[in-house]
Amino acid sequence: MIPIFLGILTKRYLPKNAVELAKPLKILSGFIFIAFLLIALLANYQIFLKMIHRVFLYVFLMNTTGFLLGYYFAKLVRLDERDARCISIETGIQNSGLGLVLIFAFFGGQGSMAIIAAVWGIWHGLAGVSLAWFWSRRRIPF
Which of 30, 91, 99, 100 has the fewest CB atoms lying closer than 10 Å? Predict the structure, then answer.
């Protein structure tokens, strides 16, 4: 919450600084996220090797189900294609960075939980970007 609050205040009271800081902070947050993933992986490498096939299957199924349910539910309630795509991506991608922070803060970084969040984060990022790229190549009918 603190970074969000600081970002809102900066954009409100120092808009020029907010624009200048946006790109470097985006890059920094990406590196911090990758560091969390690597720490979780390295601290639990043996558990990772033991569980990766099951974890990946569950993460893949959860992600795909989220994409499909988000898209088709939006269509069911008669939203247009643009909104259906947006809801699909929002539903399919969950906040794995927050998941890692919560695991480390409240569960002592339990290996199996950290591995799930790490795989979740990597896969959801790749799948979300891939779906967004795919849809960016397909024209939205009007």
Answer: 30
Output DSSP code: residue 95. -
Structure letter (DSSP) for residue 107: S
Angle between helices 15-43 and 2-13 (to 10 degrees): 160
d(CA 131, CA 18): 29
Cα separation of 93 and 86, whole Å? 11
Three-point CA angle 70, 33, 56, nearest 5°? 55
Reported as a single tens digit per residue, the pLDDT across 12-30 is 899 998 889 888 988 888 7
Domain boundaries, the chain: 37-136
Q: Which two tokens stand for residue 126?
A: 């790749």
